[in-house]
Amino acid sequence: MRLPISEEKVFKDPVHNYIHVQDDIIWRLIDTPEFQRLRRVRQLGTSYMTFHGAEHSRFSHSLGVYEITRRIISQFERRGYSDWPAEERQVALCAALLHDLGHGPFSHSIEEAFEMNHEDWTCRILLGDTCVNKVLLELGADFPERVASVIRKTYDKPIVMNLVTSPLDADRMDYLLRDAYYTGVNYGTIDIDRILRMLRPHRDRIVVKESGMHAVEDYLMSRYQMYWQVYFHPVTRSSEIILRQIFRRAKELYEAGYAFRFMIEPLPALFEGSLTVQEYLRLDEALIQTAFLQWTSESDPLLSEICGRFIHRKLYKYIEIDTGNPETIDAVRQAFRDAGLDPAYDLEIDFPTDLPYDKFHSGMPLNEKQILLLDRHDQLREISEVSDIVRSISGIHKGRNYLYYPEERVEPLLDRMPAEIADLFRRQG
Amino acid sequence: MRLPISEEKVFKDPVHNYIHVQDDIIWRLIDTPEFQRLRRVRQLGTSYMTFHGAEHSRFSHSLGVYEITRRIISQFERRGYSDWPAEERQVALCAALLHDLGHGPFSHSIEEAFEMNHEDWTCRILLGDTCVNKVLLELGADFPERVASVIRKTYDKPIVMNLVTSPLDADRMDYLLRDAYYTGVNYGTIDIDRILRMLRPHRDRIVVKESGMHAVEDYLMSRYQMYWQVYFHPVTRSSEIILRQIFRRAKELYEAGYAFRFMIEPLPALFEGSLTVQEYLRLDEALIQTAFLQWTSESDPLLSEICGRFIHRKLYKYIEIDTGNPETIDAVRQAFRDAGLDPAYDLEIDFPTDLPYDKFHSGMPLNEKQILLLDRHDQLREISEVSDIVRSISGIHKGRNYLYYPEERVEPLLDRMPAEIADLFRRQG
Amino acid sequence: MRLPISEEKVFKDPVHNYIHVQDDIIWRLIDTPEFQRLRRVRQLGTSYMTFHGAEHSRFSHSLGVYEITRRIISQFERRGYSDWPAEERQVALCAALLHDLGHGPFSHSIEEAFEMNHEDWTCRILLGDTCVNKVLLELGADFPERVASVIRKTYDKPIVMNLVTSPLDADRMDYLLRDAYYTGVNYGTIDIDRILRMLRPHRDRIVVKESGMHAVEDYLMSRYQMYWQVYFHPVTRSSEIILRQIFRRAKELYEAGYAFRFMIEPLPALFEGSLTVQEYLRLDEALIQTAFLQWTSESDPLLSEICGRFIHRKLYKYIEIDTGNPETIDAVRQAFRDAGLDPAYDLEIDFPTDLPYDKFHSGMPLNEKQILLLDRHDQLREISEVSDIVRSISGIHKGRNYLYYPEERVEPLLDRMPAEIADLFRRQG
Amino acid sequence: MRLPISEEKVFKDPVHNYIHVQDDIIWRLIDTPEFQRLRRVRQLGTSYMTFHGAEHSRFSHSLGVYEITRRIISQFERRGYSDWPAEERQVALCAALLHDLGHGPFSHSIEEAFEMNHEDWTCRILLGDTCVNKVLLELGADFPERVASVIRKTYDKPIVMNLVTSPLDADRMDYLLRDAYYTGVNYGTIDIDRILRMLRPHRDRIVVKESGMHAVEDYLMSRYQMYWQVYFHPVTRSSEIILRQIFRRAKELYEAGYAFRFMIEPLPALFEGSLTVQEYLRLDEALIQTAFLQWTSESDPLLSEICGRFIHRKLYKYIEIDTGNPETIDAVRQAFRDAGLDPAYDLEIDFPTDLPYDKFHSGMPLNEKQILLLDRHDQLREISEVSDIVRSISGIHKGRNYLYYPEERVEPLLDRMPAEIADLFRRQG
Fold first, then answer.
1. What's the pTM value of the predicted model, to 2 decimals?
2. What is the complex's ipTM, to 2 decimals?
3. Which helix (H) or strand (E) holds B238?
4. C117 at the B interface (CB within 8 A)?
5. Which of D33, D55, D289 is opposite residue C57, by nearest beta carbon?
6. C81 and A193 in contact by Cβ < 8 A?
7. Within an 8 Å CB–CB cutoff, is residue B18 touching chain D?
8. By C-alpha distance, which of D101, D91, D72 is closest to D23?
9. What's the rounded Cα separation, in Å, for the pair C22 and C74?
10. DSSP letters spanning C293-350
C-alpha cells in the first residue's frame, strides 16, 4: 500500500531539509510507540557532555537513514536500472527506518555492561508482540521476518543488505552529516548529493561510478576526522567510563542484596539479564538519568559518588600513555593499589580504535566490506587500488591509550607513588 | 578575577561556532550542578514532537545568550564608549548566563499548572544555599543580589537590565537563531553580526544606529515568523495541552488521596506547592518523562490514557474556530456535555497570541519595551516612526482559536451533536 | 527528444547544488554562442561596486531559473496533476532557460540610455539567424515562435506564461537566492523547497496551497529587503548614474562628429540605433569596460573624467532629500547653475521605488499579478485577504529621493550657493 | 595613522561575513586605481568555464587575505604574545592586501606565454609611479620597499614573511574557502576559526598549537581535494590550453608582421616584452576577452578558430594517458603529423601536479615550507612526525597526463593512424 503520491507527507529536518514519506506503511511505523521511544534515546550517548549541541535522538537519525535510502531507491527506479529488484523497495525502506529500533539508553555502555546487543533487540521487537510487528504483518505474514533478516544479514537478496549495511550506507551517511550538524564540527560535511548520484546497483551489490571517487575519498576522510574529533573524544570516553562504572556498581550491589532507596522497573530485570521485550521497551534515557539522580542519595558511597559525577558532569581526568608498553599500565595499577586506591574504580584504561577504511589484503576476493568503483567499461575495482588517498590512509590503524582517574582522590596520593609513575600524571595534569 | 586572556576557553557551538569564556567566574558557574541541570530541560519544551530536531536544551541556549552578551560588551569596551559602565561587565555576563536557571521541566506548562514563575526560581537559586551562590559570593557579598536584581528588573543601573532584557536582547537573538537551527526552519536566520555592530550604549539604554534599521526590521519579521511557524504550531500546543492535563489530573488524584503505583520525590512537594530550592533542583524532564511512562500503568484510566498519549505521541486533533464568536465555544462545550463527554478533558481551547512588535501609542514617552534608533545627529526615534515595515506590522494582533479534542472519543459521538457543531469538526477533520 | 534519463548531466551550482539537465535540447541550447555570451553580462550590473562578491553572470542565473522550472514541472508530472498540460514541458523549460537571452551589458542603464528593451532582443535572437534558433527549430517549425510568445506574454496557454512570469516565478526565486548568496546579504534566504512543494497548477495558472502562506510571506519580505538593501543601494545607483552619463556623453559626441581615439564595433550602430542581431550579440560587458578604460584617455574632458570615475570607482557622493518637495530640486538645480556647475552632469536625481507586493484594489477581478492561495475546499483567495502581513505591507509605496553629485567640484562651490541649499549638502556630507 | 576604532568600516563579504577596515591606510589603498583593477581579473582564471559560479575576482580574494591577516594579528595583539613584533602590523597588513596586485589577466596562462611573473609586477607597481606607491610613502620613505621586500621574501623580519607566505598562510586559507564558496564545491570548507585560534608567533615564525593538529589535517585534505576537483579539472586545463595557443599564435602573427584587423594598446608592448608599469595596469580580462571576440573575425584561420573556441566555449576534448610512458606521447605526435595534423596546435599534453604537503626528507632542518606544531612543553615538531594522515599523504606525488585535441579535426583522421593510437582516442572518446 502506498499513499497517493500527491499526498506525500513531510517532516522538517535540519539535515535533509525535508523527510518525504510516500508509503503509508512508513507513516504508520513512525507512529508506533516502539519507534516513538527512539526520541528518548540520544544518537550520540554521552557526547553531549563534550559537545553541548549533540542532544539529538535516534528518532531523528532513523528518519534520516530512511530518507537517504528512499532517495537512493527513487533514483534507481527513476532511471530504471535493471539490477535493482523493484519489489524489494518496502523491505529496504522498513529495514532502513527500523535498523536502530533495538538501541537502549546510552547504548554502547549499557551493551558492554550487560552483554546485550542492539541488533538482537531490534529483531526481537520486529518479531515480538509489538505495534511495529502488527504494522509490518499487513504487508504479508513473512514481512516482519524479511525485515529482521536484513538486520541479521541473512536475507537472501544480498543487494538489499548491501544497501542498508555497507561501508557507504545510508546509516553512515546520515550520522556523519547529522552528528556534524548537531555538534557544530564541520568535518562531517560530505557531498551526499554527489555520492548518491554516483551509486549504481550492480549485480548483488551497490557500487560507485568511478567519477564519484573523489567524493568517496572525502567521505572517508570525514569519517576519519569525525571518529577522532567527536566519537573518540576523551571527555566523551570519560563520561562513558563513569556510566559503565555506575552500571557495574549497581549490578554488584543488586546481586549482593543491597537495599536501594530508589529502584524502578525494569532495572531489576536488567541486572538479572531477564528482560522481556515489553520491559526492554520501557528502558530509555529518562529512566536511566532519573535513577542516577536518585542514586546520588544512596548510602553506598561509591554508587552515590559516581552517580553525582555523571549527573553533575564531574568527570574523570585523563592522561595519554604510550600504547606500546603494557608494563606501564601494570605498574600504574600496582602503584594505585599500593597507594590505597582501588584500581577497579579509580583507574580505567581506554583504547579507542578505528580504521578509516579497511581494504583487506590485496588478492582477497571482493567482499561486502569494500567500496567498489565501476569504471566506464563496467569493470569493478576496489577503491584503494585506484585512489592514492584511500590507499595511503587505509593502513592507518591509529589509536591512543588514555588512563582515566578521579583527580581529587589520586593527586593527593601521587607523592606515595614511584617517581616515574607520579611524573606521568604530573606532566600532563 | 579573570582568566589570563591567552587562556581563553571555548565551547564548540553550532550556532555561534565557538562560545568564548574569558572570565574565570563564568567557567566556574557553568561547572555548577545547578547550571548543568539545564542540560536536562529542553529549550522548546514539547516542540520536538512537531519538529523532531528541536531537542536542544536550555544549557545550550544559556551559553548562547552569554556569548552574545560577551560580544556586545567586548565591542563597547574596544570602542571605548563612555556611556557603558565598564564595572558592570561581570554582573551583566552572569545575569545573561544565569537568566534561565530557574526554568523547570516543560517550563511553560508546569508554570501554568502549578502557578509558579521561573524568574522567582532563578532568584531563589541565585540567593539560596547553592553552588552558584557560592561562586557568585566570591565577587562580593552583594554580588548574588546584584545579579538577582537584574533578573527581577530592580537593579539600579537601567542600562544593564536593558542589555539583558529588551525587545532586542541577547536572549531573543540567541533563541531565534538557535531554534531556527535545531528545528531546521530557516525563518530565524537574522544578521546578528550586523545588529551587534549597530548597537550603542546611549545614556541609560542600548539603542541601534539608524543604519541598522533594515537588520532590525528583518529581525522583527523573523520573530513574527518563528512565532507562527514554530512556537504557536498547533501540534506543539496540542502536546502542551496534554501535558497540562496530566499535571492537573495527577494533582487532583494526589489531593484526593489516590494511591499512585509510582510516585517519586519531589512530585508530592510540587503538588502541595511546598518545593524547597533543593527539591526544585531535582525536577528535570527526565524525571517527568519517567513518571509519565510509569503512570501509563496507573489504575486511573484518565491519567493512564493521557500519559500514554504524551509518551507515545497520540495527540489531540484540532480544528480552527472563529475567534470573534465566544458563543460558539459555549455551544460546543454544551454539545460535548450532552453527548456524554467531559469538557474538562475532552475539549481544550487555545488562543496563542503575540505582537510582532509593540510600539505603544504615539505620544507615549519612550520606554524600555521600544526599540530606539539613533540618527547621525544623536537624536533618538522609536523604530516604527522611521520604518514603514515596522509601523505596518506593529498593529497586527493576530491570533487563532483552536479547539483540541480526542478524536477517538469525539468523532463517534458527532452524530449526537447539533448539525452545525458536528459540521465544524467534520469539515476540517 | 530527451536524453536517456540515466544519462542526465549536471552542472555544479552553489545555489541549487546541482543543475540537472535531462533534455537534450537544453544541453544543446546551453552550448550555443548566444547563451554562452551571458557569461559576459553580470546579473547585477554595477552592484559589484557596492557588494564586491556580486560578480555573478546572467549565465548562472539563467541556469538557476531553468532548474527551478524543471523542479516545478517534474513535481507536477510526478503527482499527475491534470491541470498541467504535459505537452508544454519543453516550451516552458526553453522559455525559462532563455528568458534573459536579450540582456545587454549593464542592462538597465544601457536600455534606459538607448531606449532598448531586453525582451524584444530576446525575441529577435530566438527568431533570428542564430544557433539558438536552429536548435529550437528541431522541435518544430513553430517552436521558436512558441517560446518567443511566452516571453512576449502572448502565448495561448496562460498557465505556461504564469509559470515563467508571475510574482512568484522561477526567475524571482532564483535571483533572490542567488543575489543573496553572491552579495553575502542573508535577507534573501527563502525556503524554496517549501514554496515549490506548495505550488499547484489550477486551471489557467499556478497557485499556492494555503498551508504555504507563511513561506510566501517570508518570500515577499525577503524581496522587500533585497530591494532596499541591495538593488536600490545608493552606491549602486551612483555607479549606474555615471554609466548612463557615459553612454549619454559618448552618444552626444558621436552625433556631433567627435573623433574618438578609440572606437570599436558595434558601438557606432548602438549610437545610431541600428544594431542588427549579429551586432547586438557582440555587445558584452568586456567590450563596454574596455571602451571606457580606453576613453579615460579621450580628449573630451567630460568623457574622460566620467570614464575614469567608473573604471576606478570614484563615484558621485549623495544626499537624501525630502520626497514631497519638488521645488527643492528645482532650487538646487538653479543654485548649481548659478554657481557655474552643469546640472546635466553635475547633479542627478534618483528615485528608486518598488512595491513589496501589489494587491490591487479590492473588488478587482483576479489577475496574473496576484498571488492566489488555494484552500482545502478548492477556493482561491488573493493572499492579502488571508495574510495580515501581506496586507500590511502591500500598501507601502516606499521610495527615497537621492541627489548625486561630484563632490570635488560641488563642495568648493557651496559657499556661493544659498545657505539653505548649501546646508542640505553640508549636513549629510 | 589609524582610523578611530569606533569608525571602523566594513565590506560585506560572503566568505568572512564582514571585512573590517580599521586602518586608514588600508582604506585608501583599496581606493587606488591599481587595487580597483583587480576587480577586472578573475581569481580562478578560466575555471568559470567548468564551474559557472567561479566568477569572483582577485579583488574579493585580496580583501579576504587582508581580513584573515588582520584577525591573526589582532589576536596576537590581544593576547600580548611577545614573539610578535607589534610594529610590523602595517607592513604585514599592506603586504597581505597587496600581494596579488601584479596579477595580469588569466594570470597563469599569460605568465607562461610571455614569461612574466606576477610577483615582479607586484613589486614594480608598489615601487613605481603609482597611487599605491604614493599612499604607502605616507608611512615612511622606506615603506613601499619594506612591503615589496615581504613579497620578494627578502624582508629582514622572517616572521612577517612567514605570516604572509607559508603552507598555512592567509592567502591559502582565503582561496580555499572562497573558491569552494563560489564554485559550490564543498570540499574547501575548513574550520578557519579553529586554525586561527591555534596559531602562535614563535621566535621567527608562525606555528600551530598541537591541539590544532586535526584542523590542519583537514585543511591539507581540503587543499588536496580542491586541487584535484577544481584547480586541475581537465575542462579548465583545456580552456587554459586554448588560451595559451591564442597568445602564442597572436605573438607569432605579430612578429611576422601580420596586419591585425583589431589591435589594441598595450597588446603590442606585451608581444614585444616591453610593457611599462602604466601599460601593464591597462591589461585586464575585459581587454583580453574583447580582443579575442574581435579576433574571431581575423583572416588568419587558426587565430580566428581558437578565439572562437575560447569565446564560445568549444574546448578541446581530452583523453587520459599513462604517465609512465613518454614514448606513447612521441608516437601520438608522430601519428598526428603523419595524418596531416599540426601537433603544435592540434595536440597538447598537460601534466598538472601538486603535493598535498611536502614534508621534505627527515633529518632536514626545519624550514619555512613546513608546518610546525608546538606542544605543551614548547617543543616544535614538523606535522608529519605527529600526524598519521599527513605522513600518509605527504608522499603522494600524484598527477595525470592528459592529451587535449580538437575533436572535429582529429576524429575523422583516426582511421589513418596506427590502430593502437586510434584506440587510445576511441576508447575514451
1. 0.94
2. 0.94
3. helix B234-255
4. no
5. D55
6. no
7. yes
8. D91
9. 11
10. HHHTT-S-HHHHHHHHHHHTT-PPEEEEE-TT-HHHHHHHHHHHHHTT--HHHH-EEE
| Chain D environment of A388 (Cβ under 8 Å) | 393, 396, 398
Coil/strand/helix, residue C176:
helix
Asked if C392 and B388 come within 8 Å (Cβ–Cβ), the reply is no
Residue C406: phi, psi to the nearest 5? -80, 105
Q: Please give the C-alpha separations between residue A143 and each of A96, A126, A139, in angstroms, as whole numbers.
A: 14, 10, 6
- Pick from A204-218, A398-412, C317-331: least confident: C317-331
What is the average pLDDT across A227-236?
A: 91
Å from A218 to nearest chain C CA?
A: 17
Classify domain C5-231 at the CATH superfamily level.
Answer: Hypothetical protein af1432 (1.10.3210.10)
* Cross-chain Cβ contact B14/A53 below 8 Å: yes
Contact between residue C99 and residue C62 where contact means Cβ atoms under 8 Å apart: yes
CATH architecture for the domain at D233-315: Up-down Bundle (1.20)
Residue A382's H or E segment, with its range, is: strand A380-382
User: Which cell numbers hold the place of B278?
Assistant: 533543593
pLDDT tens for B245-262 read 999 999 999 999 999 999
Q: If contacts are CB pairs under 8 Å, which of residues 50-89 in chain A contact chain C? A: 78-81
Q: Do A5-231 and A233-314 show the same overall fold?
A: no
C-alpha cell of A362? 590485496
Q: Characterize the bridge pairing of strands C205-209 and C372-374.
A: parallel
Q: Residue B159 in contact with residue B72, Cβ under 8 Å?
A: no
The third-level CATH classification (topology) of the domain covering B5-230 is: Hypothetical protein af1432 (1.10.3210)
- Tell me which of C322-331, C337-346, C374-383 is least confident: C322-331
Contact residues on chain C for B389, CB-CB shorter than 8 A: 221, 224, 393, 396
Distance, C-alpha D23 to centroid of its chain: 27
Peptide bond before residue D365 is cis, with ω within 30 degrees of 0: no
Is the pLDDT at B404 greater than 50, yes or no? yes
Q: What letter does residue D387 receive in the DSSP assignment?
A: -
B20 to chain D: nearest residue by CA?
D197
One CATH from 1.10.3210.10, 3.10.450.50, 3.40.630.10, 1.20.210.10 for D5-226: 1.10.3210.10
| CATH-assigned architecture of domain C233-314 | Up-down Bundle (1.20)
Rounded to whole angstroms, how far apart are CA atoms D426 and D429?
A: 5
Residue D383 CA to residue D210 CA, distance in Å, equals 9
3 state SS of B21: strand
What values do phi and psi take at C2, rounded to 5?
-135, 140
Are B319 and B403 in contact, with CB atoms under 8 Å apart?
yes
pLDDT of residue A428: 76
Q: Please name the amino acid found at residue C198.
A: M
CA distance, residue B291 to nearest chain D CA (Å): 43
Identify which of B391, B353, B349 has the alpha carbon closest to the alpha carbon of residue B370: B391
pLDDT at B1: 46
Query: Which of A266, A264, A291, A263 is CA-nearest to residue A280?
Result: A266
Instruction: Quote the distance between the C-alpha of residue B411 and its chain's center.
Output: 34
- Read off the pLDDT of residues C188-237 as tens digits, 9 standing for 90 and up: 778 999 999 999 999 999 999 999 998 999 999 898 889 888 999 999 99
Question: What letter does residue B282 receive in the DSSP assignment?
Answer: T
Distance of CA B90 to the CA centre of its chain: 24
CA dist B185 and B232 (Å) reads 14
Measured distance CA(C326)–CA(C323) in Å, rounded: 7
> Cα–Cα distance between B420 and D285 in angstroms, integer?
74
Q: State which H helix or E strand residue B146 sits in.
A: helix B143-152
- Residue D99 CA to residue D103 CA, distance in Å, equals 9
Q: Break chain D into its structural domains and give their ranges.
A: 5-226, 233-315, 316-356+396-429
